[in-house]
Amino acid sequence: MVGSSTGFSTTARWYQDQSEAFRSELNELVCQHEFQPGKINPGLNPVQDHMFKHNFCPTPNQLPLVINSPGGIAGLHFSPNTVTGFVGMAQEESDALLARLKTELFAENNVYDHWYKTQHGDLLLFDNSITQHRRLGDVKNRLLYRMGTSYRNLLDYQYQPYRQPEFQHRLEEELADITRVTGQQFKSFKNPVEFTENS
Fold this sequence. Notes:
Oligomer: single chain
Shape: globular
Number of strands: 8
Structural class: alpha+beta
Radius of gyration: 18 Å
Order of helices and strands: EHHEHEEEEHEEH
Helix content: 25-40%
Largest sheet: 3 strands, antiparallel
Distance between the termini: 34 Å
Strand content: 15-25%
């Protein structure tokens, strides 16, 4: 790991720095996600690329651009490797906004790079809901153990990231399906309007 880094782009700060009018526009945007072979990790073999498709975007889908983190902080749920445009927006306009987001979100003032100092002692915890990450440096031979987890056991309510009723209902229906199939029970949702922009 030494000689490489994991970097984090914190979208919440960028979002808060925008004008109220532009934030209102961003709040309404819905991203069109589609897997694009070879874009996430160019040069992967077909088996690895298929694994990335399964993990990142197995089928084309639509998700809001602005969501609330589990702590109620508003930011962008933005994947530059899968977003191809915005629902209801002309492609030329979508491309211009995507270029702006990529330029501004990944500017150095919005990025923290953690350069590993030991081979076995660095532990990074981060919320991936409104944060993107990258790797830099000598990554050819590095070995990193990554463990994803849910917020279910950390919160006293069911995490609801979405503000739009249609996406709230879709998530509730998905969890109800999981309950029907597995018997796994979920906590009650907390209404995201109760969250504050900077809580």
